[in-house]
């Protein structure tokens, strides 16, 4: 099936860059045209993705770089940590990588977040390119320059804002993704509707079956529209001093689920999906949206194959974990709530209402 390559631009002055979205991009020289051709390129990936796609990327890069190295990180959210960073730094130092070395993050959000953080730190900053291979990474994590590793006490707690030079989202890589990962990616696609574009929410409802069936043209539009919305938000608030927080709809509850169960037990997108059910209900209980809109969001999340009931961590534990969220201020949790269809804001909420939400959707 023919899918035209789309280009979405992130406008950040001298840090502006393009997101390329299309089929067969990993075999197309044009995907890397204009990127620096320093001495060395280093592909950071993992043992799941490497056998599938590393050779294609290596072939593209060999024409531009005298050296093309590969670093494999162990796969999984549990490895989004210091030891993976050390592995990258060790490989770079042993190879004598200089400041012109370009890092390529080939994989999902875990590889992308860790590689981006390594690029921000190595020699105080070397260029990097995101090559996202999961739906979640193509619609969200590869875009916008948030990089991080987890700490046992909290998700994404150690990191930096550091923008890539380009994002190359080859839709063909989604062919090999397990169904569970497609659903996880859909959570982040769905999020853009209630927070920024109610018409997009309707489009997702109408096209969900085609998305689940991986129809390329439909996936291409979902990735493009998601990236456009993210570009619009990040272009106004790169370092999350305000607006950007809306991209965290469902994440306050979701991160608590991920950390509370132990990283990797639930996928990030599963936590976000269930977290959006809770955050939508919270928005309703705060009198911001009617029950029907919260129900509409819940129904879509369920249809996408995502969990809509949270694990039984206990309300006290949920609250303790959420107080540690990066959006909290002086121990007061601030939630992304839906103020009206297609519009979100950051607000505190009384503990007793949060407890009602948890009683209704978890325990
Ligand atoms: P992931 O990186 O763990 O990838 C999911 C699984 O799919 C892994 O096992 C991976 O090896 C495998 N995989 C990747 N591409 C594949 C392919 N094409 N075919 C087959 N298997 C493939 O998870 P994810 O959902 O991509 O990313 C989640 C991470 O992203 C979380 O750590 C989350 O915090 C982070 N995130 C960051 C941002 C940001 O703005 N930086 C935004 C959202 C999420
Ligand atoms: N995924 C949230 C953000 O990029 O801000």
Report on the structure:
The chain has 363 residues and is α/β, with parallel strands linked by helices. It folds into 2 domains: 6-176, Rossmann fold, CATH 3.40.50.1970; 179-361, Dehydroquinate synthase-like, alpha domain, CATH 1.20.1090.10. It contains 12 helices and 11 strands. It has helices at 50-62, 82-94, 109-121, 135-141, 179-196, 198-212, 216-236, 251-261, 268-285, 291-303, 315-323, 351-361; strands at 6-10, 17-22, 40-45, 67-72, 102-107, 128-132, 146-151, 154-161, 166-170, 334-340, 343-348. The strands form 4 sheets. The protein has a 4-stranded parallel β-sheet, with helices on both faces. A hairpin with a 6-residue loop joins strand 1 (6-10) and strand 2. Helix 9 (268-285) packs antiparallel against helix 10 and helix 9 crosses helix 12. The protein is globular, with a radius of gyration of 20 Å. 48% of the residues are buried. The model has no long low-confidence stretch (mean pLDDT 97). The protein binds nicotinamide-adenine-dinucleotide (NAD) and glycine. Nicotinamide-adenine-dinucleotide is lined by residues 46, 48-49, 52, 75, 77, 80, 107-111, 113, 133-134, 136-137, 140-141, 144, 146, 156, 173, 176-177, 181, 184, 268-269.
């Amino acid at each position: 099936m023919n899918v035209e390559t789309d280009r979405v631009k992130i406008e950040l002055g001298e840090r502006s860059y393009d997101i390329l979205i299309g089929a067969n991009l990993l075999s197309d020289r044009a995907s890397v045209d204009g990127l620096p051709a320093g001495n060395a390129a280093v592909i950071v990936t993992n043992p799941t993705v490497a056998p599938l796609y590393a050779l294609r990327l290596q072939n593209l890069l060999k024409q531009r770089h005298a050296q093309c190295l590969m670093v494999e990180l162990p796969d999984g959210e549990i490895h989004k940590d210091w030891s993976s960073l050390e592995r990258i730094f060790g490989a770079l130092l042993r190879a004598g990588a200089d400041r012109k070395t370009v890092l390529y993050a080939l994989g999902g959000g875990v590889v992308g977040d860790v590689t981006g953080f390594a690029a921000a730190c190595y020699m105080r900053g070397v260029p990097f390119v995101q090559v996202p291979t999961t739906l979640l990474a193509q619609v969200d994590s590869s875009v916008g320059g948030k990089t991080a590793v987890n700490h046992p006490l909290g998700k994404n707690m150690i990191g930096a804002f550091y923008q890539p030079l380009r994002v190359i989202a080859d839709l063909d890589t989604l062919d090999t993704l397990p169904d569970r990962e497609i659903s996880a990616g859909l959570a982040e696609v769905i999020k853009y509707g209630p927070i920024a574009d109610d018409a997009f929410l309707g489009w997702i409802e109408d096209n969900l079956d085609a998305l689940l069936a991986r129809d390329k043209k439909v996936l291409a539009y979902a990735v493009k529209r998601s990236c456009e919305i993210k570009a619009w938000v990040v272009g106004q608030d790169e370092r999350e001093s305000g607006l950007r927080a809306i991209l965290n709809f469902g994440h306050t509850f979701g991160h608590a689920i991920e950390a509370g169960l132990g990283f990797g037990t639930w996928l990030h997108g599963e936590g976000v999906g269930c977290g959006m059910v809770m955050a939508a209900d919270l928005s309703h209980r705060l009198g911001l949206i009617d029950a029907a809109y919260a129900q509409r969001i819940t129904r879509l999340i369920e249809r996408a194959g995502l969990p809509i009931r949270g694990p039984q961590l206990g309300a006290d534990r949920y609250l303790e974990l959420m107080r540690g969220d990066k959006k909290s201020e002086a121990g007061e949790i601030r939630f992304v709530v839906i103020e009206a269809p297609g519009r979100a804001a950051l607000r505190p909420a009384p503990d007793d209402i949060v407890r009602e939400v948890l009683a209704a959707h978890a325990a």
